[in-house]
Amino acid sequence: MDQHTSLTATCHCGAISITLKSAPAEITHCNCTLCRRYGVLWAYYPIAEVVVEARQPTDTYAWNGKNVDFHRCGTCGCITHWLPRKPTRTSMGINARLIEPGSLKNAEINYKDAAGTGLFF
Length: 121
Description:
The chain is mainly β.
């Protein structure tokens, strides 16, 4: 990954760092029961384009054991990312709140009604 154009997201204590090729153009604000409680905004990237470096193993949670594993730092507790459970899925979610705010200034925020219709509004 090109260090001159890459971007790094980190948890609060710095134990987990995520290197991205670029700032997200879009961010998803999801209102499902889990994302609402986590207080996250999601940026989606191809798994192959993301480097997650952890000085310690992350803790994971999978709601009803389905779909994705949510990762969090075991020290500071920040939700860092999610990875799909199905190997055929090629994208992952990065908690955009871990990216410096100035790098998000041009990102469009899409609101997803995952708690109701499942549609974007």
